[in-house]
Structures are given as C-alpha cells and as structure tokens.
Amino acid sequence: MKYPIEPFKIKTIQKIQRKSASERENILTNAKYNVFKIASEDVYIDLLTDSGTGAMSADQWSAIMMGDESYAGATSFFRLKKVVDEIFQFQYFVPTHQGRAAEHILNEVLVEPGHYIPSNTHFDTTEANIRACGGNPVNLPEARKSTSSPFGGNIDLEKLSRFINDVGAYNIPYGMLTITNNGAGGLPVSLDNIRGASEIYRSNEIPFFIDACRYAENSYFIKKHDERYQSQTVEEISKEVFSCCDGITMSGKKDGLVNIGGFLAVNDSELFTKIKNIAVLREGFPTYGGLSGRDLDAMAVGLKEGIEEDYLEYRTSQTAYLGEGLREIGVPVLQPFGGHAVYVDSAAMFPHIPVEDFPGITLSSALYLAGGIRSVELGSVAFAHFDEALQKIVRPPLELVRLALPRRTYTQAHLDFVVRTFGEVLENVETYKGYEITWSPEHLRHFTAEFKSKL
C-alpha cells in the first residue's frame, strides 16, 4: 500500500530519542511492566493512545491566544457553542475537561444500582463509570459475517430487542452506541444500524446516547463505504447520525483534535438541568466546565478541522498503511482497519501463552524492549471482570493490543520502524513468557496495575 501524502506541512517539531536496550529493560522493570508508568521521554514511538496526543494546527494555536479566561460567560464558550450547535445540533451542552467526565456526569444522573446499559461495545472508561454507579454495562456487538464487512462496529439489533424484553425497559436508563467502535477494532457503525438502534430505543421510551468521540471518522467511513451517502459531506452525514439520538458524550481529545476537553450534549431540558447541577459540583461553571478559555477556543477550531475530508482521507489511509505493513509480515491484525488504530490479536501472536497469563502484556512489553514502542493492552487486563451472577471471571472475546495513531504526528518512517520492530519480535516469538498481576485497583486496572514475568 502506498503511503498517503499528508495534507499539511510540519511547522513545529518535538525531539525524540531512542534509549539503549539495557536502558529500556531497566525502565520497563521499574515500571512493573506497565507501559502507562513509563515517562514519555523514555518512549521512542508512542502509540499508547490517540486521545489528546495529536498535533494542533497553526489556526488552533492562534485561537488559543484569543482565549477569554472569564469565570462566567466567557466569549470562548460562545465561540465553541456556535460550532457545537452547527455540527451536533443539540439544544443544550456543557463543556467538560474530557470525555470520561461527561460519562461520569451522565451516569451519576441516570444510573441506579441494578440498571443495565446496552451498547455495541462500551469502552473502558464508559464501562468503569457505569460500574462505579452500580450499573451493568452490556455489550451486544453484531456478529461479523465476514472480515470484509466495512461496518464491523454495529450493534446486534435483534439481540438488543431481546435484551430489552428480557430485562424490561424500566431497568434501562439509557442505551448507547460507540462510534467508531473502539472496543471492536475501531470499526465504524453504519447509518442504517444507528437508525435501527434509535427506533428500538425510542419505541421502548429509552433515551439513546452516542459516545461520539470519533464521530468524524465514523461519518467518513459511511461516506466511503455506503454509496447512498457518497455525495454528502462528512458534516451532513454527522448531522443525520446525531438526529437519531437524544444526546452524546464527547471527548474532544479525539476528533476534536485537542489535547484536553470534551462536552455532554442533550435535548431534554429537565435532564440538562440535572446535568448542569452535577457539572457545577464536579467540573466548574457551565460555561467553562473544567477548561480554560483557550482550551475552549482550541476545541472550537479543532472540531471544524476534524471534519475536513482531505484530513480524514489521510488519517484513515495512514492507519491502513500501518495495518497492511504488519499483515504482510505475518502479524495477526484485525481487518478491515479502522480509523484511529491497528489492533493486534496477541493471543494468536503468542499461541503458547494462555489468556490468563495476559499475552497482551507480553506483546506490549516486547514492543517496548525491542524498539521503545508504547502500545496498550485491550484484553483481559482492561476488560475482564468477575460476574457475580455467574460466579466466574468473564473475559473479552479477544486479547488485543492497540496501536493508536496520534493525529498529524508520525510519518512514514516512524510507521516503517514499527513494522520492523514487530518483525524482530516475530523472529523470537516462542521465547516470550506470560505475566501475572501483582497489584491492581478496583476500576480501570490497566492504567495502574503492576505485573511480573512468569518464569
């Protein structure tokens, strides 16, 4: 696959330096084999996340200088509000310091112990916020008929209908869709599937929310893969998507192209009043929501840049370039490739390591030791949980390692280096061992858990 030409030129750089093999070994050991604990200056290629790690544009940096730091009613808020109204078209919104804050507020307002919240796949912070309120996150991904299906992020509409009938709509305070589906290879959700979910939720009088942090990538995939929408703009498709739901949680750190920020938007005035009250307690005044005025202005510009189609074409093609490079050397990657990351099946890569020994931690450790590359495990460390009803540990269907590409950050040479590093790991794949957890917290354990290698 040819490398896509960047629709921008580089204006500012940040120096990176590769540590020696012995230094990397000491660093990883001191981090207790959790790459989250490694200082960024000790990382050569950082694919841990695409959340807030991309490069902002000259226009965004210019907007930062216009930031109004007034406590209440800052002009920065109204500039952001104009863009949010234009793209998302909800009646009310409140800014938050990032997406998980929006999730926390939504769940604190709506979820009570014993409630169920269905989705195509809840991601880690969404799932943790639901559990922290006593709720039960339920994943109902559509079974993929073939790996060539472009919309592998869909929710199973038949399962959703059955689930609502089984537990009762009164036990479901809201339903959700994550676009793109980060827990399922970053694959998009079709507009037909979004409409179908909307019809089911609304016929059962269940509020429908979308986790919209990668909505622009999802809308671009709809335009690219559904011929009915190829003449529409990404913004027009996005408006159709959001017309199907009652509200969204948004992390601006993804398709808002900013380092920090997010928001929660709804149409229900009574619900918004409750949201606003909690936001004042947790985040700050409703016109700044835990952000400085300059952050609000940067997000206002970033949201517009995030729906530019030449950028989205480059963005998704760059991800596919890395995925194809890995596939060609024999790395077991999920296909088709999504918009923001390449997902590696670590259990398939290390078939001699049982899932209870966390092959994803084996791979993330191996990549750092071999090349100073930081990735993230999205398998049993991130998503396994103890099910009280079943009285057993329930593991996710796949043991994945995600290689998330920061936006507008890395070049072809960087990605080629990642492929070469994987090649080095593959040459000695049978020598790698599993890991065990020595300590972990109750929620979101992959962020801070500690490990040791199994001998």
From TrEMBL:
Pfam families per the UniProt record, alphabetical: Beta_elim_lyase
Cofactor(s) listed: pyridoxal 5'-phosphate
Keywords from the UniProt entry: Lyase, Pyridoxal phosphate
Domain Aromatic amino acid beta-eliminating lyase/threonine aldolase: 46-419
Xref: InterPro entries: ArAA_b-elim_lyase/Thr_aldolase, Beta-eliminating_lyase, PyrdxlP-dep_Trfase, PyrdxlP-dep_Trfase_major, PyrdxlP-dep_Trfase_small
Top-level taxon of the source organism: Bacteria
Record note on quaternary structure: Homotetramer.
Family: Belongs to the beta-eliminating lyase family.
Protein name: Tryptophanase
